[in-house]
Design brief:
Elements lengths: L1 H17 L4 E4 L2 E4 H14 L4 H6 L4 H6 L10 H6 L4
Antiparallel strand pairs: 1-2
Keywords: Signal
């Protein structure tokens, strides 16, 4: 009984260390949790714009610096809708 409890506790601890950082996907881009808030904010900026206005919208300099692994300008309004952000 004690051996099972000991093994179960090791399995729980090992699973906690082995769990990778969660990532989200928008369009074909994988976004880390740290960068996701900037993607969501960019999508909110696109929300309600016409398609042509959304195409011309550029992400802020702060958002671009905060998301070095994601090209925010490549995210479309429809990508935001499909991801459930707008």
């Amino acid at each position: 009984m004690k051996l099972n409890a000991l093994l179960a506790s090791f399995a729980i601890v090992a699973a906690g260390f082995a769990a990778p950082a969660m990532a989200n996907t928008i369009g074909t881009i994988t976004v880390s949790d740290q960068e996701w808030s900037y993607v969501a904010e960019y999508c909110e900026d696109l929300d309600g714009l016409s398609v042509s206005d959304a195409f011309d919208t550029e992400p802020s300099a702060v958002a671009e610096l905060s998301t070095p692994n994601v090209n925010l300008a490549s995210i479309s309004q429809s990508d935001c809708q499909n991801a459930g952000l707008i």
